[in-house]
Each structure stands twice: as structure tokens, then as C-alpha cells.
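hey so i finaly got around to running the thing on AAA family ATPase from Rubrobacter marinus. pasting the sequence first so u can double check i didnt mess up the copy paste, my clipboard has been acting weird all day
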Amino acid sequence: MDTYEQLSLSGTVARVRVVEDDGRRLYLELSNGNVVTVTRQEPFEFEVGSVVFVRLEQGQENIGAAPDELWPEESWVGVVRLVLADKMVVDASGRWRLVPTPDHVELREGNTVEVRESSGVVRVLSEKPVKYLDPPTVDDAVIDKFKRKKGAKRETFDDFGGLGDVVARARELIEVPLQRKEELSKIGARPIKGILFTGPPGTGKTLLARIIADNTDAEFYEISGPEFLSKWYGESEEILRKIFEDAAKQERAIIFFDEIDSVAGQRDDGSHEASRRVVAQLLTLMDGFTSNRNVVVIAATNRPQDIDAALRRPGRLDWEIHFRPPDRDDREAILRSTSPPSTAPLLPHAWVAENTEGWSGAELTAIWGEAALLAAADGRSTIFVEDYVEGFQRMAARRRWVAQTSSGGDAA
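ok and heres what it spat out for the C-alpha cells, dont ask me to read them lol
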């Protein structure tokens, strides 16, 4: 052994890693992880794994046996992922390690265990897996974020102008099952679990769901993709479970999924694993509905073709209501129902309705926002005819600009 190795090993505890066949060369592992070699003329009498103490005496190395307790071995913690007769796979903070299956410790997959390199599994620390990163706890405070706030303005069907046929069908499919559950049960009718609202953006899908919830005194849960999807593994599914459990405790409840295609798209080889898990969880929860649960699921989308096909099978979102663009009479009704309280009489609703072909309910409602800004800028608290007409013209110009930029034209 050269001088550097002699100096580095003086008064050092090491462990034998390899003994060469003739026994005259040892490979020793130091506590810092480095490996050095020791050679001599006579064979060593140490076995692999032995703990030794190396010191210098008169310039010569002296290696003797040392108690195992002197080796500074640290244990590490992992979660058992697979147990075989001779080996087991342990997940150590994302790194899978292969260790011997112990005879003296009873364990199973999912246990959190303490492991040492020399002796393998030492003990079971927990029957459940301890995660390297623990997601936030899904408690009542998390679920409350999806509930409509207590004391929020109650909306009525007077706030929803036009689309009388759509409103009538929605009330039939949602109000009747929520308010006439006993009668339907006596008839033996299959309970209505889910309704799909389809149609272009801004046609009032969300508003109508809220109005029906208010009209039936139902607890209203509103779920949208950005608020619901979590970066934590399994948390989105847990939120879904908790929402459905909470809804089942209510006298009446409506669970509303806005843009359902963003969280429950078609499952295929290219879909994300998190999305597939969410769809599977939603299917399980809807299939778990029983006749005594007064809960209706409403999902809204403007891309029904993108929803996973399994969600549209019988017993799930198998009823559909299409929200068409409002016709001329619908547009006039929307303008009248959404007008602010402080407006001048005899506003030209019929003229604006005639000139807003293809406009959505949201775009029609936005006219009032523009008109209110014009009135306030003029120091008035009442919307006059000129404010109303100018508000319409501003919204028309905005629609033209959006259409032009969307088609790749020059908006300047």
C-alpha cells in the first residue's frame, strides 16, 4: 500500500467490500464512500462485510477486526412496491431499490420500512405508504370553494331572457326529479342522473343551471377545469369524491361541470394519465348513484364530440339539451331581462334585436355594460337612448375586430 493510502487509513474504521481469490488483497470501503486497496504477503482472514480497524504501527499497516457497531451505517426509509420470495422492490424517494426479502419482518406492499445496506429491512415504520411529497389535505374548506356562496344574489327565470323551449325542457329534466322524487320513485321511473348542456359559448348554460338550483333550493357545486385539476397525484379524484359525498348529504343538490371536455376528454393512447383517472373516477361516482340520492349532475360544453363516450351512456350524461343561438324574439327578451333598473323609457330593443343576428346572450348583455360606462362618463345615473345605441355600436365593432383577428386578418 502506498504512502497516501497509509496516511488516509491511519486510525480508520472500514468495511471489507471485496477479497481477491488469493486473499492477499482487500478492497476496503471508507465511511465517506471511497474505496481503497490493502495488500500484503500473507492472506487476510476477513470476509466480505467485515468491519475492520486500520492503524499504522512503525510505518506498517495493522488491520484488525472491529465490532460491527463501529461502522457508521445510516438507515434509509422507503415504501415497499413489490415483494417476492427472495427479493423486494423498495421505493426510496422515487428511486427503486432491490433488497433481500427479510425472514424476521412481516411486511406487505405499501408498508413504509426502514432499511440498512448490511442487514436489509430493519422494521416496518407504517402500514401505509409515506409519500415523499404530501399533497394538501382535501377537507371541508376545499369543498366549500366549489359551493355557491351563501347569501349570493338569487337569480330567477326572469333573469334568463328567451330560449323558452330550452328553459322548459331544462326545468322538466332537472326541477321535476329534484322536487318530485317520491312520485317518480312510485312510478318506477329510472332516475335522471345527468344532463349535458351543449351549445355555443355565451348562450346561458351556466346561468340556467344556477337559476334552477336557486328555484329548487338545491345546493349548487360549480366545477371548472383550472380550479379542479391538481398537480398532486390523486388529489383531483379525491376532490371529486368529497364533492359527491357532500352532495349526497344535502336535501337537493346540483353538481355542475363547466367545460366538461377540459377535464373529461376522450381517453386514448395520447390522453394524459391524470385525465384518464379523472374520467374513471367520475364514471364510478355516477354509477354509484342510488335512487334515494337527490343529486343531479349537469355538464356544459360547446364541444360534445370531445367528451369521453362512456360519459354519454345510459345512466350517466344520457340526457342532452342544446342551447341554440337566440333568434330575434329571444334577443329582444334577453335585452329586456338584462337591462339595468335605471334606464330611460322607450329604448329601441326591437331595433337592436333586429340588428344583432348571430349574437350570443353574453354579447347582448355586454351592450348594457358599455351603455352604463357612457352614462357614468357623462355624469348621469340613467341610461339614455344614445348610450344604448352607442353601446350596441361599440360591441358590434368589437365583434368585427374579434372575427377579423381570428381569421388572420389585419385588425389595425
